[in-house]
Amino acid sequence: MGLSVIKLGGSLLTDKSKPYTMRKEKFREIARELKESMDEMIIVHGVGSYGHPPVKEYKLYRGYTGKENLLNLAKTQSIVFELRLEFVRALQEEGINAMIFLPSSQIVAEGMKIKKICIEPIKRFLEMGMTPVFGGDIVVDTKMGYSVCSGDLIAAHLASELNAERLIFATDVDGIYTKDPKKDKNAKLLKEINLENMDELAKLTGSAFTDVTSGMYGKIETIRKYKNDLKNTEIVILSMLKEGNLKAYMRNMKDAKYTKIKIK
Ligand code: ADP
């Protein structure tokens, strides 16, 4: 089956509209579907309403601004850890050999790009049959002191460095639509988009899509940074809000819903 890197969005694991709310009732279901669909995998999760509120409140996105903010940074990491631990326990309860890897202990960034990652422990534990679990974190940054390292970035980086067979972004919508499907009922799901045709896509989806605050746009931009190293990787965006869709995609079933991201 080959290696899958799957990013589980913050929208899927938390309710982004309310600070510090996990969708705990979904964890076991998501874990079960992962167990039934995948063999060799790395899981990367977003931090959603666990990470964004403290990062905003303490302005951690600015990077190192002085020692007085370090305790806030430390506390933020512990808050996010509550989500990590809860989710990893659900994975383990469904029989996944889930093992927490902390980006802050493994990654060095340079201007919010991953410059170095300690890959050997990941490779070796994977070979043994473990499932490394990463999540968004704050990492040291040679330009900013420290910076936010998103789950999307970690997932794209790991998929390219480990030459993954597939890179899956699981979120709360079926893929990329012509408009934000939460705001526009007439939005249509795009079966495939080509990174080379971004201008066309911007026209199709309107200015909303190119708004930097839009989650989907950020994902595409992140994938674009790695496009030269992801040529052999199948990249899809799909929903895991309802059980069965990931399984359907993995089994090549006709009713699977997703958007495929083509590099060429
Ligand atoms: P996650 O936290 O799961 O990684 P994001 O919240 O960053 O995901 O991005 C997914 C969200 O992007 C969706 O919930 C959707 O409301 C929004 N979105 C904005 N524009 C679009 C679009 N054109 N197609 C699909 N989703 C869109």
From TrEMBL:
Binding site for ATP: 7-11, 48, 172, 177-182, 215, 219
GO biological process: terpenoid biosynthetic process
SUPFAM superfamilies xrefs: Carbamate kinase-like
Gene Ontology cellular component list: cytosol
Reaction(s) this enzyme catalyzes, per UniProt: isopentenyl phosphate + ATP = isopentenyl diphosphate + ADP
Molecular functions per Gene Ontology: ATP binding; isopentenyl phosphate kinase activity; kinase activity
One of the Pfam families matching this protein, by short name: AA_kinase
InterPro entries, A to Z: AceGlu_kinase-like_sf (IPR036393), Asp/Glu/Uridylate_kinase (IPR001048), Fosfomycin_R_FomA-type (IPR024192)
Residues under site feature: Transition state stabilizer: K16
Record domain Aspartate/glutamate/uridylate kinase: where: 5-238
Lineage: superkingdom: Archaea
Assigned keywords, A-Z: ATP-binding, Isoprene biosynthesis, Kinase, Nucleotide-binding, Transferase
Enzyme Commission number: 2.7.4.26
Amino-acid positions noted as binding substrate in the UniProt annotation, renumbered to this chain: H52, G151
The protein's assembly and partners: Homodimer.
Alphabetized PANTHER family for the sequence: GLUTAMATE 5-KINASE, ISOPENTENYL PHOSPHATE KINASE
Reported function: Catalyzes the formation of isopentenyl diphosphate (IPP), the building block of all isoprenoids.
Similarity section: Belongs to the isopentenyl phosphate kinase family.
NCBIfam families linked to this entry: IPPK_Arch
Protein name from the UniProt record: Isopentenyl phosphate kinase
Species this protein is from: Aciduliprofundum boonei (strain DSM 19572 / T469)
